[in-house]
Design goal:
The complex is a heterodimer of chains A (262) and B (389). Helices cover 78% and strands 0% of the residues of chain A. Chain A is mainly alpha-helical and 262 residues long. In chain A, α3 packs antiparallel against α4. Chain B is an alpha/beta fold and 389 residues long. Helix content of chain B is 57%, strand content 13%. In chain B, a hairpin with a 3-residue loop joins β2 (39-43) and β3 (47-54). Chain B is elongated. The chains are: A mainly alpha (262), B alpha/beta (389). The A-B interface holds A 27-29, 153, 157-158, 160, 162-166, 169-174, 232, 234-236 and B 140, 144-145, 151, 154-155, 157-161, 236, 238, 255, 258-259, 261, 263, 267, 270-271, 273-275, 278, 281.
Chain lengths: 262, 389
C-alpha cells in the first residue's frame, strides 16, 4: 500500500524540480505552473504515504534514520508549499524540490518509506525529540534554500543579466530578511529537540555518539549565524554561512544516522 | 440589424501632425457622440477613433469620416466583428506603441463613460474593458518595464523589495535623471539630495552614506563618484547605482565592490530590449484571448437578428398553452391545488422542451450568418405576427 503512494510522490516531486529548472532558464509561466502542480500532487501522495505508515504502525513510524528522512522531506515540502510557493518566492522551489527528490530516494533506499520500523523508544519522546529536530532542520533547509536563491539572484545582478526582470525572484533584501527570520524560528526548536535528547541520554546513562556531536556542532554554527546576523552580518557572506550550516544538516541526516539509530 | 461601425486613425498610419488635427478633448468627444446618435469617441495621443452603432452602416461611416476629414487619406474603416476585434486589441494594449501598456485600458473605459452608447456599444465597450483586464491577468504582457526609467525602478525593487522609504541620491538635474527619479518616487522612494557635478565631493560622500539608490545623469566629462569614495561611504550596505550619463559619471570599478550594483545606460537599454521581446512573445498569447472574445461578441451580435423571432415564438407557445389550460378548466377545476400546479408545470415543461432545440439552432444559424433566413422561416411556419397584419 505504501509503495502505491511513494512512486507517484517521487514522480511529481521530480516533475516539479524539472519544472522549476524550466521556469528559471526559459520564459517564465507554464513551466512554473506545472511545477507547482507537481509539488501539490506530490505532497498529497507523500501525505497519504505517511498516513498509511501511521495507520499500519502501533508506535511512532518514523523512528529509523530513513523513516525520519521521509518525514523530514515532507516537512520541508509542506513549509514550501504553504509558505514558499507564493508568487514572489516560488523560485525557491528551484533549490528545494531537487533536494526533496534526492532525499526521498535516499529514504526509500534506507527502507524509510515502507512499513515495519517500530522503535523501542516511547512515542512521546520520539515525537518531542525527532519532531522538534526535524522541524528545526526543515526550517534551516529552507533558510539555506533562500540563501542559495539569494546567491543566484545576486549573481544575476552582478552579471547585469538582461533577462533579470523577466524571471521573477524575490528581492535580495527580502530573501536576506526571511532567511534570518526562518533561522531565528528554527534554532529554538533545535535547542528544545537537543535538550529532550540529552535528558533522555542522561536518564538512560547512554554515551554520546558521532551524530549527537555533529548535531551540537550544527547548533553552534546556526547560533553563530544568528549572532552574526544580529550584529549586522548580512548579504552574500551570510548566505555562504547558511549553506555551510545546511551541509552539516546533510551530514547529520544522512552520513551519521546509522550510528544514532543502531 | 444594427451595425457596429468604426472609423479612425492611429500612430500606425498617421504622423503626429495629422493626429493632432483630429484629436479631440473630453468635452468635444462628448459633443460629437451626442451629435452622432449612439456613438463613442476614443481620442488619445496615439489614436482618434469613432465608434457608431447604426442601422445604415454606410451613412454612419460617411458621417464619422467627415468628422475626421483632415486625416482622410489615412483612415481605417471597420465594421461589426472586425471593429470589435480592433477595439479589444486596443483595450488589451496590443495596438499600442509599446505592447501591453496599461494606460489605454483606462482611456477606453473613460471614452465609454463619456459617450452615448446604446445596447450594442455598451456591450462591446464593456466587453473590451473585460478583455483588457483578462489579458493583463492571464499573460505577463504588462508586467515588465518598457522604458529605461521604469527599468531602473524595477531593478531597485530587485535589490530592495518594497521601495517605501528608500532614499535616492540624484546627481544632475537633467530630464533623463529626473525621469528615473520620478519612476522611483512613484514606487515609494524619496529624494535624499539633488546634487550636480559641482557639488562638494565631501558633502556628496556624506549623503552617499545615507542613500540606497544613486541616479547620476550629468553632462560632465569627469568621474563624479569613484570606487574608493563609494566603498568608504557605503559602510557595508547594499547600493544600486544607475549611471544614465554619456560619458559615464560613475567609476565602473564600483560594480566590483561587494553589495554594489552599477548599471549604465547600455545595461538598462539591454534590459528594456529583453523585456520588450518578452512582451511581444506574450502578445501572441494575448492575441488568442482577444480573438476568442471577438468571436463571442460576434455570436452575441448575430443573435440579435433572431432574438425578436425567438421571443415571438415563445410568447406564441405560451399563449397556446394558457388557452388550452383555460379550455380544460372544467376538468382542471376538480383538481386540488397541488395537482393543478403539477399539470401547469408539466405543460410548461413540454413547451420549453419543444422550443429548446429550435432556439439553440436559430442562435447557431445567426452566428453563421443565416439568422435572418431562419427567423423568417420561423415567423412563416408559426404564423408569428400575422394577427397584427
Amino acid at each position: 500500500m505504501a509503495e502505491l503512494f511513494f512512486w507517484p510522490a517521487l514522480l511529481f516531486y521530480g516533475e516539479a524540480a524539472l519544472g522549476y529548472v524550466g521556469e528559471a532558464t526559459r520564459v517564465p509561466g507554464r513551466a512554473g505552473r506545472l511545477a507547482l502542480w507537481g509539488v501539490r500532487l506530490g505532497w498529497l501522495m507523500q501525505t497519504a504515504l505517511l498516513a498509511v505508515q501511521a495507520a499500519r504502525e502501533d508506535g511512532f513510524p518514523w523512528s529509523t534514520w530513513a523513516g525520519s528522512l521521509n518525514l523530514f522531506v515532507w516537512l520541508v515540502v509542506t513549509v514550501y508549499l504553504f509558505w514558499g510557493s507564493r508568487r514572489p518566492y516560488r523560485l525557491l522551489g528551484l533549490t528545494v524540490m531537487p533536494f526533496a527528490v534526492a532525499l526521498l530516494a535516499v529514504a526509500r533506499a534506507g527502507g524509510g518509506t515502507g512499513i515495519g520500523s517500530r522503535s523501542n523508544y516511547s512515542n512521546l519522546f520520539l515525537v518531542a525529540h525527532v519532531g522538534l529536530v526535524l522541524v528545526a532542520f526543515a526550517g534551516f533547509t529552507l533558510t539555506a534554500g533562500l540563501s542559495a536563491l539569494y546567491l543566484w539572484q545576486e549573481r544575476r545582478l552582478k552579471q547585469r543579466n538582461a533577462g533579470i526582470l523577466r524571471k521573477p525572484a524575490p528581492s535580495l533584501a527580502t530573501m536576506d530578511r526571511l532567511s534570518f527570520r526562518l533561522a531565528a524560528w528554527s534554532l529554538p526548536a533545535l535547542t528544545l529537540g537537543i535538550a529532550v535528547g540529552i535528558v533522555r541520554l542522561v536518564d538512560r546513562g547512554d554515551g554520546v555518539d558521532a551524530l549527537v556531536i555533529a548535531t551540537l556542532v550544527t547548533w553552534v554554527v546556526w547560533a553563530g549565524y544568528l549572532l552574526l546576523r544580529v550584529r549586522g552580518f548580512a548579504g552574500r557572506r551570510a548566505a555562504y554561512v547558511a549553506l555551510a550550516g545546511f551541509l552539516l544538516i546533510i551530514v547529520v541526516r544522512i552520513a551519521l544516522q546509522g550510528v544514532h539509530f543502531a | 440589424m444594427t451595425h457596429l461601425v468604426l472609423v479612425g486613425t492611429s500612430h500606425h498610419l498617421a504622423p503626429v501632425e495629422l493626429r493632432e488635427q483630429v484629436a479631440v478633448d473630453k468635452e468635444r468627444a462628448a459633443e460629437l457622440a451626442t451629435q452622432l446618435g449612439e456613438a463613442v469617441v476614443l481620442s488619445t495621443c496615439n489614436r482618434t477613433e469613432i465608434y457608431i452603432a447604426a442601422g445604415d452602416d454606410a451613412a454612419a461611416e460617411a458621417r464619422a469620416a467627415a468628422l475626421l476629414e483632415p486625416a482622410a487619406q489615412v483612415l481605417y474603416r471597420l465594421r461589426d466583428r472586425a471593429a470589435a476585434l480592433h477595439l479589444f486589441r486596443v483595450a488589451a494594449g496590443l495596438d499600442s506603441l509599446v505592447p501591453g501598456e496599461g494606460e489605454i485600458l483606462g482611456q477606453v473605459r473613460a471614452a465609454h463613460e463619456n459617450g452615448t452608447p446604446g445596447l450594442l456599444l455598451d456591450r462591446v465597450f464593456r466587453q473590451a474593458v473585460h478583455v483588457g483586464g483578462k489579458v493583463r491577468a492571464n499573460t505577463a504582457i504588462g508586467e515588465s518595464p518598457a522604458s529605461v526609467s521604469s527599468a531602473a525602478a524595477a531593478l531597485a525593487e530587485q535589490v530592495f523589495g518594497d521601495l517605501d522609504g528608500c532614499r535616492i541620491l540624484l546627481i544632475g538635474a537633467g530630464e533623463v535623471g529626473e525621469q528615473a527619479a520620478k519612476s522611483l518616487r512613484g514606487r515609494g522612494a524619496e529624494i535624499l539630495l539633488t546634487a550636480n557635478s559641482k557639488t562638494d565631493r565631501e558633502h556628496l560622500a556624506q549623503q552617499l552614506a545615507e542613500a540606497d539608490v544613486v541616479v547620476s545623469a550629468t553632462s560632465t566629462h569627469d568621474v563624479v563618484l569613484d570606487a574608493a569614495t563609494v566603498e568608504r561611504a557605503r559602510k557595508g550596505r547594499q547600493l544600486l547605482l544607475i549611471d544614465l550619463a554619456v560619458p559615464r559619471d560613475l567609476d565602473p570599478a564600483i560594480h566590483e565592490l561587494d553589495g554594489c550594483y552599477l548599471y549604465d545606460i547600455d545595461d538598462l537599454e539591454a534590459i528594456v530590449a529583453e523585456t520588450l521581446a518578452g512582451r511581444r512573445s506574450e502578445a501572441q498569447r494575448a492575441e488568442s484571448i482577444v480573438a476568442a472574445e471577438a468571436e463571442k461578441f460576434h455570436e452575441w451580435h448575430a443573435s440579435l437578428d433572431v432574438v425578436p423571432a425567438i421571443a415571438s415564438l415563445r410568447a406564441h407557445a405560451e399563449e397556446i398553452r394558457e388557452a388550452e389550460l383555460k379550455k380544460a378548466e372544467g376538468v382542471l377545476g376538480r383538481l386540488d391545488a397541488s395537482e393543478r400546479s403539477a399539470v401547469e408545470s408539466l405543460t410548461a415543461q413540454i413547451v420549453n422542451k419543444l422550443l429548446h432545440l429550435p432556439t439553440v439552432r436559430m442562435k447557431q444559424a445567426a452566428a453563421a450568418a443565416d439568422g435572418v433566413i431562419y427567423a423568417e422561416a420561423v415567423r412563416h411556419l408559426f404564423g408569428l405576427g400575422e394577427d397584427e397584419r
